[in-house]
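Milestone 3.1: sequence recovery, worked example.
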């Protein structure tokens, strides 16, 4: 029988734990942790993510602010905003929502973020620290995947984890994090140029899919009894729905779920844990600044 890795329920539990900790801080007269977000332009998905981050921040008692900048914002203007947030003593951590408009160089932007406030764990300093196993801010989605596995008691040591997708924000850091001491998976990282992909994914005890293609993973790519973590989320037009669309992941759940021991649903799997990881990092940033 397949069991559901319920990210919504686990996120709610961890948010309660965070809220208790924040209450203890504020009741002793100290200010609450403060998470800021920078949103450039009007991308629909990005606006939803930032609104969710704001809502979750308030749920745990954080101060939250959002800097909404026009699509036409220049790289120099955005860097000026980042310098302002780097210097603001009231802000513990902030994120710049990606993707950015095409005329802005993402690398220049990420490099401008102070590593001490980089709660997304995207700067080269935090990436380097992670790879070296040093204390750092872990990137939110890989950290959320680790939390989902660990808090559901899923054994990882020595397990073969196959990661599909090598993006800077999910696949590459997830492969690194899951192979680190304490998690101890044996990791294979697959990507668009991988040969015999299905042969590899069929060897996975734990399959992490972050390829960005709707329902890419089919039943014949999954081993019986595997743990499947679906990082994708896509809006597919669906005339039978009131809102005109449905959400699907990178995994074809109708086919794959019956083969799994554990599977993350979409939505309500990895997504809620990504946000919770960001909150955990912000609390850590706050404590480090005190
Ligand atoms: N875009 C998609 N995922 C993320 C994320 O985790 N952080 C930021 N800043 N942008 C994203």
């Amino acid at each position: 029988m397949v069991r559901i890795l319920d990210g919504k329920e686990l996120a709610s539990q961890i948010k309660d734990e965070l809220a208790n900790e924040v209450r203890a801080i504020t009741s002793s007269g100290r200010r609450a942790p403060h998470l800021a977000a920078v949103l450039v332009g009007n991308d629909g998905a990005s606006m939803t993510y930032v609104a969710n981050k704001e809502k979750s921040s308030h749920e745990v008692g954080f101060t939250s602010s959002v800097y909404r900048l026009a699509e036409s914002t220049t790289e120099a203007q955005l860097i000026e905003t980042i310098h302002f947030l780097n210097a603001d003593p009231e802000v513990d951590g902030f994120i710049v929502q990606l993707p950015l408009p095409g005329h802005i160089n993402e690398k220049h932007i990420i490099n401008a973020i102070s590593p001490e406030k980089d709660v997304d764990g995207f700067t080269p300093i935090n990436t380097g620290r992670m790879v070296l196993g040093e204390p750092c801010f872990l990137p939110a989605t890989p950290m959320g995947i680790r939390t989902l596995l660990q808090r559901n008691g899923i054994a990882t040591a020595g397990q073969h984890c196959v990661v599909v997708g090598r993006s800077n924000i999910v696949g590459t850091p997830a492969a690194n994090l899951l192979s680190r001491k304490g998690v101890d998976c044996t990791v294979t990282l697959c990507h668009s140029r991988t040969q015999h992909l299905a042969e590899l994914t069929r060897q996975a005890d734990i399959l992490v899919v972050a390829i960005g293609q709707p329902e890419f993973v089919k039943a014949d790519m999954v081993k019986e009894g595997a743990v499947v973590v679906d990082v994708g989320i896509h809006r597919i037009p669906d005339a039978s729905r009131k809102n005109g669309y449905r959400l699907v992941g990178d995994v074809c759940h109708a086919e794959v779920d019956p083969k799994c021991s554990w599977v993350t649903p979409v939505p309500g799997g990895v997504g809620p844990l990504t946000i919770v990881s960001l909150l955990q990092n912000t609390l850590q940033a706050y404590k480090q600044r005190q």
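Residues 7-27 form the longest helix (21 residues). The longest strand covers residues 34-40.
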